[in-house]
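Worked problem 6 (solution included).
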Amino acid sequence: MTPVAKDAVNKKSIQMLEQIASEAKFTASMTGRKAFDDRVIDSMGEVPREKFLPLNNKLFAYANRPLPIGYGQTISQPYIVALMTDLLDLTTESIVLEIGTGSGYQAAVLSRLAKKVYSIESIAELFESATKRLKKLGYDNIETRCSNGYEGWGEKAPFDGIIVTAAATHIPPALIDQLKPGGRMVIPVGMPHMHQELMLFVKELDGSTHTDALLDVAFVPLVMEENA
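Solution. The predicted structure is:
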């Protein structure tokens, strides 16, 4: 990348972060967070979003909106990526499960904040391209798997945080079981192409749970078949 092109990307990235900060303030009454953790914002600024998009969409890489990545899937709006990441309250020792690898962008953002990220993608073509992309870009604390996200990744459980980047009709029981006491799950819940809400599911240290509905959202549907 030439110096001029790099400067242009940096400017767009800064504008994206400013839009994220502005939207965080606007939605604070619903999310309870008027600003996101500096570590989350730094990670959003460090991960090159244009590297996770098809060529025809790279021009819009830093626009604060979702973009198609093929196979009927999307890369989420940067604000939503930042919000969902922030809600997990990750530490450098956290072990995270992501359901819906997609292009690998969300996993890359998580990898800058957590010790280990496990990411599941059900679409083989996206799994293969994301795995190659993440390896090429040097995100070496991410492990990917092509399987049904509804079932989670039991062999690697329990997880400090679980993030689901597709809408489920209900919170999958396997994911609840695989969440560590003290852990947090962020998941959109609702019917495809209908009303969906971004939910924060918390499992307390004593094993009790509670769920908060935060925002109206629109995500592609999660594959829910237990034997998919």
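Discussion: Residues 3-217 form a domain with the Rossmann fold fold (CATH 3.40.50.150).
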